[in-house]
Amino acid sequence: MKRSVESIRRVGLIANPEKASGRRVVRQAAALITATGRSVSTEAPTARLAGLEVPQCPDTASLARDCDLLLVFGGDGTMLRVTRDIAGQKTPILGVKVGGLGFLTAVPSQRLAQALGQIWAGEFRVETRPLIEALGTAHGHPTTQVALNDFVISRGTVSRMIELEV
Hints:
- The chain has 166 residues and is an alpha/beta fold.
- The protein has a domain at 5-120: Probable inorganic polyphosphate/atp-NAD kinase, domain 1 (Rossmann fold).
- The protein contains 5 helices and 8 strands, in the order βαβαβαβαββαββ.
- The chain has a 6-stranded parallel beta sheet, sandwiched between helices.
- The longest helix is centred in the N-terminal third of the chain and has 13 residues, at 22-34.
- The protein is elongated, with a radius of gyration of 18 Å.
């Protein structure tokens, strides 16, 4: 997907509220973004974590609809949660690694300023990642789940037959 730098005016910040180490980097991101004349928005848990006084959206999906770019601070779990929450929307996501595992988070927090500088200079490429959807039945009711990379199907405590379609 081609996106021009000029089209990135509103940036959403989403952090894992369980990672206090994200506070500093989220505040740094907000300062770097607003210094370029762009606006920052977030949702309540991230605003509380970082002590930000910026516009807030009620949930992640609303934030994605209102922004041109999302910065996600955390690890793979945070990235997977956000992609599931905004499934079907076209807002690009940049993952910023805070803490442990981070195969899906492209930017270490120490390189945030450099990465944002490259984005503002137009030196970036948006990669489209397909989502997968699982349809099933839970407790007699139909259910749908969306994921970025995989689903786990387990037997549970009692063995039983399952039917799969791919």
